[in-house]
Amino acid sequence: MGSFGARGKNQVKGAEITMQQAEDYFDSVMETAVDEFRRFEEEMEREAKVELSVVDDTAEKVKKMGDLMEKGANIVSKLYVEAVMKSVGFNGLSPNKVHPS
């Protein structure tokens, strides 16, 4: 019975060693997974910043184009009003003209 006790102790010690190795392997795998996730997260953040920068640049270009279109529309509107006034014979108010009333 003494040899069984020693044999049982050896099996328990072997199981403890195996469990410790499994825990070490699990810890290693988890550490690797966490590191990979952090790298993935950092890469996604970098890509998001690049995409946001592109969107910001595009928005700024669109705003400038809108501003130019507004200025162009104002110029065309003024030219149109001037053309209409000339076509009806209105040459503007001059200090030499007297109002008919």
UniProtKB/TrEMBL annotation:
Protein name, entry field: Uncharacterized protein
The organism of origin for this protein: Gossypium anomalum
